[in-house]
Each structure stands twice: as C-alpha cells, then as structure tokens.
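Quick one, tokens below:
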C-alpha cells in the first residue's frame, strides 16, 4: 500500500513539472494573443493581441489608448502598450497577425510630449512624416502586448 501511495505521489509531481515546462512556438495562439518572441527555453516570451484595442475610428489620444490597452483582459490581465522595439517586432511579424489598419500605431516609448509610433501601411517605407506623435493631439491605433 505504501508503495502504491509513493508511485501515485511521484506521478502527480511529474505531471506538475511537465505543466511548468510547456514550450511555445512563434505564431502560436497563447494567453489571449499570438506569440511573437520567445526566450531560449521557449517557455517565456511576449504575445501581441490578436486585434487592435484602439482603432483610428475611435479617435483616442495616447493616454486614453494606454488606459484601454491596460484594461484589456483577453487571456488574462497584464496587457500594456508595446515599447518601440516591441512595436518594430510586431511590424516585422505582421504577416502572422491580422487586422492592422493602414495607420500609425502608438508605442510606450516617450519623447518630449510625444510618443514614438510606427506606420503599418504598405507605403512610405514604414513611417509617416515623423514617427514621433503628439501625446494629446494625435489619434492613432494601438495593439497591446503581454509577457508570459
């Protein structure tokens, strides 16, 4: 009987460990988004939301957009506006994602009363006239990211 209990406990421990060692791949659906970056273990990384949290038609400035993204809860909490580097990563992998407007997207990277943005349309070499947009007077799109 003791041997049976020992084997059962060992089995539970092994199953628990296997769940903690789950690996992911780029482009995979996970945590309410699409995996766009992985660490060397492939157990942790970054997902981008499957849809925009803020569209151009909503006419939201940077602060409002940031609040909307942070309130997003698809796949759990933890969503935030991407950094400049993360927005570049999203742009480079936009073929794995869908639904982008041919517009500028906000990042969390701030300048002097501005934030860096990235143009997701097909023209202009990836940028509109300036990637730095006024925080309060510009209305851009926003798609959140979340670490896992």
């Amino acid at each position: 009987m003791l041997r049976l209990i020992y084997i059962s406990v060992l089995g539970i421990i092994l199953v628990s460990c296997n769940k903690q060692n789950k690996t992911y791949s780029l482009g995979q659906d996970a945590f309410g988004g699409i995996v766009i970056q992985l660490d060397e273990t492939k157990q942790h990384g970054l997902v981008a939301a499957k849809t925009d949290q803020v569209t151009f038609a909503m006419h939201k400035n940077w602060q409002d957009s940031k609040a909307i993204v942070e309130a997003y809860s698809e796949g759990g909490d933890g969503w935030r506006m991407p950094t400049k580097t993360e927005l570049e990563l999203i742009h480079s992998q936009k073929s794995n994602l869908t639904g982008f407007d041919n517009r500028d997207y906000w990042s969390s990277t701030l300048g002097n009363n501005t934030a860096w943005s990235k143009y997701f349309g097909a023209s202009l070499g990836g940028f509109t006239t300036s990637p730095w947009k006024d925080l309060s007077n510009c209305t851009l799109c926003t798609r959140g990211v979340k670490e896992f």
